[in-house]
Amino acid sequence: MARFSTLQGRIKWIPMKGWSKHFEYLKSGKIGDPILTYDKSSKTFFLLVPVTLEVQEHQPKEILGVDVGERHIAAATSTKGTRYLIDLPEEFKQRKQHYQRLRSELMSKGTRSAKRKLARISRREKRFTENVLHIIAKKLITSHPGARFVLEDLTQIRANRITYRGKDKEARRQSEQWPFASLQQKIEYKAKLYYGVQSEKVDPSYTSQTCPRCGHVSKENRPDHGERFVCQNCGYEEHADIVGAINIALRVLVKDQQGNLEKLLGADVSRPDAPRLG
Predict the structure, then answer these.
(1) What angle do CA 154, 155, 156 make, to 5 degrees?
(2) What does the pLDDT read at residue 137?
(3) Radius of gyration over alpha carbons of the chain, in Å?
(4) What is the DSSP letter of 217?
(5) Cas12f1-like TNB domain: which residues (predicted)?
(6) Domain range annotation of the chain
(7) What is the pLDDT of residue 44?
């Protein structure tokens, strides 16, 4: 039940509907300030209730590197030997193209009614995209219960992403619209909520150009910036997105190993004056 203060007085005991799991969170968590919103299209009020939950942290059972991309939504590699690409469902691509056509038609009209319809379509498209991202994130999390997810730090994603100059307009549009950070955010909070494991972000620089076997870094390792990775030094071959995911996971493994060395030697091993073996 919920109670509200209105201009006509206080309304009490309005029944609330929702997912049973959400009501469990309301009972066990700390409730923040609710927000009442109104959806004009459905003429329905929605009460958004933020809840802070205490989640017991657990040691990760594996480390999973995740590389998000434009050709494939994500590539994942695990310390248990699992590696695969995740593609968007065909329905998603078709719906996005449909929304793009509608936007183009409405923008060309420029009327008030067209602008109102454009706003409704944008909201509908956003809800659809968010739902697809939730499904993908949940499937990834539940496929690796208790895994520590290592993600790219996408702070500079706009500056460092692939530039589609000379490519078709559709490729450039998809590059601009894809919500990389939204997918990562869903992976992070679901991993913590479901299994109590904290995710981590690393610098993604050169992850798709670095050979995970010998460490050789070169643009030439990605012929024509294609999907194939071929190390020009040792000959290692793999899908470029998989290589990116491997290197993302490796950066945390190396960081953890350095931490173990620091504990062993009692010093910061990255300092020039730190003790050295041998």
Answers:
(1) 90
(2) 95
(3) 24
(4) B
(5) 180-248
(6) 2-52, 62-84+145-265
(7) 82
Specify the pLDDT at position 263.
59
What's the rounded Cα separation, in Å, for the pair 11 and 196? 39
Q: Is 181 buried (19+), middle (13-18) or exposed (0-12) by CB count in 10 A? A: middle
Q: Distances in Å between the alpha carbon of 133 and those of 55, 129, 130? A: 23, 6, 5
Interatomic CA distance for residues 103 and 123, integer angstroms: 12
d(C-alpha 78, C-alpha 263), whole Å: 26
Rounded Cα distance, 209 and 190, in Å = 30
Burial environment of residue 63 by CB neighbours within 10 A (0 to 12, 13 to 18, 19 or more): buried
User: Does residue 262 contact residue 268 with C-beta atoms inside 8 Å?
Assistant: yes
Who contacts 157 (Cβ-Cβ below 8 Å, separation ≥6)?
180, 181
- Determine the Cα–Cα distance for residues 107 and 173; give it in Å rounded to an integer: 16
Q: Residue 20: how many CB atoms within 10 A of its CB?
A: 6
Report the number of secondary-structure helices (H) and strands (E) in the chain: 7, 13
pLDDT at 129: 92
DSSP state of 24: H
Query: CA-to-CA distance for 19 and 22, rounded, in angstroms?
Result: 5
Query: Which pLDDT does position 184 carry in this prediction?
Result: 94
